[in-house]
Amino acid sequence: QARHAGPPDGGWGWMIVAGCFLVTICTRAVTRCISIFFVEFQVYFGQDYARTAWIHSIVDCATMLCAPLGSLISNHVSCQVGIMLGGLLASTGLILSSFATSLEHLYLSLGILTGLGFALCYSPAIAMVGKYFNKKKALAYGIAMSGSGIGTFILAPVVQLLIEQFSWRGALLILGGFVLNLCVCGALMRPIALKEDRKTAPEFLEQDYVPEAQKRDLKRMSICSPLIKAWSHECLCYCSWKEYDFLLMPGFMVLAVSVLFMAYGCSPLFVYLVPYALSVGVSHHQAAFLMSILGVIDIIGNITFGWLTDRRCLKKHRYFCYLFAVGMDGLCCLFLPVLKKFPLLVPFSFTFGYFDGAYVTLIPVMTADVVGTSSLSSALGVVYFLHAIPYLVSPPVAGWLVDTTGSYTASFLLCGFSMIFSSTLLCFARLGKKIKRTQLRSLTNDTGTKQQIWTNGAIAYSVTAELDQKDVEFLAVDTNSYSNR
């Protein structure tokens, strides 16, 4: 495993992008296409909207809830092993689902088992792209994440055709074989070591936690018992804390809260778009075509937004590009209840699909900007973990509203307002940070305050501790000049 000074921004990195592209097809695109089975499951098992919606909810929830487990296996064992194991579990879950005799059976096989398999594949594959790219990071993520859109575009009509030809059982069986391609994707994920990566547990142990006399003894014992050197209690606690110390960063906390509302708003639409279209008189093939449109425009959003936000003029404004995309998707959901004909639903699929692809591309980019590349795998695991509860709750809640009110209006309005609130929260957080930074800069520009800061170390520390790196650099002046004056 070669050690690089920084991400190579090319070379084998493009194979990593191709592997991640296939992973998103086999995970997120397949999950979206489960909504095409919604009506089939509802008719076959004779259940209402809310109970049937739990299937899609559990798949999404398990995928995101177990994302930290995927990051853990990737960090401490191997990204390749984690993705291959996930592919086997997901394929097994889909194959077992083809023999389901009740909704509870589908909850376990299609929901938990398949979702767990997807979790072991998704976040490690995305994190690998971030390790191989820096300057072209947004474009690389745009291409990799576009697998979700192109997979939906291709799989949606194919799944509808498979259901018509082989019933829903045969379609799930074929999807189970298709998902085995995740094992091939795992084989492409060649690990890379960067100099900025934090030290491993054994290195910390040798340097900080073992006296010199014991180091010599441990070196003699290392051949027979390497675990004695590597996994002491103190070392594990220290490394675990360092791996997740980003959780206390204010920027990450705000991002985490906004992700909760964003995830609640986006999930129900992928479950109920097809049933809603059918309820207003759209044919089955046209309803599946709406999902295909959403998928292919999702690709355009992934790639074009990724390319645009890599340009010098927009690279500094990725934050606002992200919240703009989330807000636009929220507005689309607010207008959906008045769109009751196929020609009106087509523009909706175009608009929602484009901005969905846009903000999905920027999630890992923003996470990397907040926590850094070395913590990206663990941070993405947490970010996708935060998707779990909204993904679990929102489709059944939306289904309950449909069952109670007899229409989809309340469900879609709730989704729209949730996404708009997510965007607004990020906007106010950034404005608050800018106001605070301006106040602190004006404080340091005052002559009397300057003298007090540099003559009182405690005050200097308290001021600089509240500033980000740019403000610390602003204050990095020669203190000797002040003392001489």
Automatic annotation (TrEMBL):
Domain Major facilitator superfamily (MFS) profile, by residue range, is 12-434
* Primary localisation category: membrane
Its record classes its membrane topology as:
Multi-pass membrane protein
**Keywords, comma-separated and alphabetical:** Cell membrane, Membrane, Transmembrane, Transmembrane helix
Q: What lineage does the source organism belong to?
A: Eukaryota, Metazoa, Chordata, Craniata, Vertebrata
Q: Which GO terms describe its cellular component?
A: basolateral plasma membrane
**Which gene underlies this protein?**
Slc16a12
Primary role: Functions as a transporter for creatine and as well for its precursor guanidinoacetate. Transport of creatine and GAA is independent of resting membrane potential and extracellular Na(+), Cl(-), or pH. Contributes to the process of creatine biosynthesis and distribution.
Q: Which residues cross the membrane?
A: 12-31, 81-100, 106-127, 139-163, 169-189, 252-275, 287-308, 320-339, 345-367, 379-402, 408-431
UniProt-recorded Gene Ontology molecular function terms:
transmembrane transporter activity
Give the protein's recorded name. Monocarboxylate transporter 12
Report the CDD domains cross-referenced here: MFS_MCT12
Pfam families tied to this protein: MFS_1
Name the catalysed reactions.
guanidinoacetate(in) = guanidinoacetate(out); creatine(in) = creatine(out)
